[in-house]
Every structure is written in structure tokens, then in C-alpha cells.
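Sequence in, structure out.
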Amino acid sequence: MRGLKEKIIVISGGCGDLGSATAKRLVEEGARVVLLDVVDKKIGEERAQNVGATFLRCDQSERTQIDSVLQQIVEKFGRLDVIIANAAMVKRELFQDITRDSWDDYLRINLSGCFHFAQSSVRLMLAQSLDERGVRGKVLFTSSWTAQHPLPGNVPYVVTKSAIESLTRAMAQELAHHGLRVNALAPGLVYAGLTKKLCDETTGLREALLDMVPLGELGTAEQVADAFAWLCSSDSDYMTGQIVTVDGGCAVIKRALPDT
């Protein structure tokens, strides 16, 4: 892919399955990647080392932390080319069982955290020069296909991811004339992270999820990473305000007639 060599890319929630796979893919293309996460420093450094990235401990929902860490990155590398606001929480709970604290945590981490990460990054990017293709920087978010096609048992997750998609479009429109691109990637049912854990622990769940996917297979973290690499690259420079769905067809809903 074009335009990734030596690019400075920062991924929040970078030590999870999607973040790590994306970092590995970007490093393979020559990018310099920094992983932000709330995991223990030793664990974070080991995971970053495994994919050729750098680790900095940071909670994206804490504005003072994100401001400080991003400033450190710019001082060290001289520029901030792309950020991927990927950190999020998700758990299964029925609507009537959602507590006030749980709801507030979703908003703090999944929505406000992404806002703070994005705004802090944009302020730094605005001070940068345009690259040779007229791009000053890129902001990417991790959404989910469930933002538009909800599954039962995760209302706060669906709501916050839907808000992320609105944030993507609004930011893209406002920041386009500054040379900034803003897009989101919406993975489908990926056999990684919490979905993998639930499938491994819950009898019949994997089969039930597979029945929703027209392509007949759950996605992988590596497939999500491939899409993120494209969005980070200069191959996607004429895109902004878009939600790229990588879901094996889940969004079109699997239907079959008796003779098909």
C-alpha cells in the first residue's frame, strides 16, 4: 500500500486483538506505530514488542493523560499522521439490567474517550504541514456493524457505536478543508476478543453467529487489520466521512429460500 512507510500511527486499545493485529500489519508496511492501552506496563510492552510497535500506558477517557501522551509522541517523532480510536468496552446485559454505572462507563470510554482522543489529535494535526498529497492527518474510529443492525443484549454498545458514526460524519464535514480525513471501520462478527471468549464458553453460540453471516465464516482480526491499513494509506485519500463495513455480509442479512 502507498504512503505508509515512516507514517506515525497511534492506536488506542492497541493491546487487544484488533489493535495488535492492526499494528502488526502497519509495521509490515513500514509505519511507526504506538499502542496506547490501560493494561499493565509490562504486558503492554511485551505485546508491542511482539508486533514491532511502541507501548505507552494511557486511558483515552482521561483527557489529561491523552493530551500528555500525544504531546510526547509528537515531540519524539515530529508528527502525528494517523490515529485509530479503537479502545472500547462491551459486555452482554439485558436492557432492564443495565446499571447507571455501566451506562456511564460506556459513554465515558466508548464515546467521550474517542472524542477526547480525536480532538486532542486534531489540535496537533492542525499545526502540521500538509503532506505531498495535501493531507494533514487522518482520524479513524472503530465502529461496529451492530451500530446499524443491533443484536440483543448490548444496547449501550450499540448506542455508543451509532454515536461514533455520527461523530465521524460531522467531523469529516467540518475538518475537510483543513486537509484532515475522518472515517470509521465497522467490523462484523470477528472471532477475536470478547466474541471469541463468548463463543468458546457458550455452547452453540458460534454456530448461531455463523448462521448470520452470508459468507459462512466469522471474521478475523487480520481481516480487520487489512482494512485499517488501507484506510491509513494514501490509497484512501479521497475518502472522508465514510463508514467502511467489513462483516462478511452481515449487514445485508442472510436469507435463504428452500430451493437455494
